[in-house]
Amino acid sequence: IACKVETGRALAVAGLHPATGGSGLELCSGDMLLEALVACAGVTLKAVATAIDIKLKAGKVAAEGDLDFRGTLGVAKDAPVGFAQIRLRFDLDTDAPQDKLDKLLKLTERYCVVYQTIKSGPPIAISLRCA
Question: What is the Cα–Cα distance from 123 to 109, expressed in whole angstroms?
C-alpha cells in the first residue's frame, strides 16, 4: 500500500510504517511529519541566530514522538490515533550566553511554521471527490 506525493521538486512514495505492515521501503508519513518539523525548526533557528547575531559552530536538530500503533491499526478502540507526544531537541555548538540562547529558542518556537501548526492544531477541512 503506497501513495505517490508530488512535492514540486521530486516524487516521494509514502507507505505504511513497518509496525503497521509496511515494507519499510516507502516513506512513512509520521516520519515525514517529524522530518518536516526538524527541517522547519532548523531553518528557523538558523535564521533567528543570524538575525540576533549568535554564531553557531555546528548544530543538530532531532524530533521524536510517541505513537501507539494499535490506534492506527484499529485494534484497540481506546488507543489514540496520532502522536501522543512529540519532542524537538536542538544540540548546538556555540559560545553564546544563556540569555541569548533562551531568546533564540523562544523566537524559533514563535516563528517555526510547522511547530506552530502542530502545536495549535488548526481546523482542517476534508472532502472526497469522485471522477
Answer: 20
Q: Quote the pTM value.
A: 0.86
Q: Which residue has the cell 500500500?
A: 1
Distance CA 50, CA 45 (A): 9
131 residues of the chain, pLDDT tens digit each: 767 787 777 778 888 888 887 788 888 888 889 999 999 999 999 999 999 999 999 999 999 999 988 888 888 889 988 899 999 999 999 999 999 999 999 999 999 999 999 999 999 999 999 98
Residue 40, judged by CB atoms within 10 A of its CB (0-12, 13-18, 19+), counts as buried
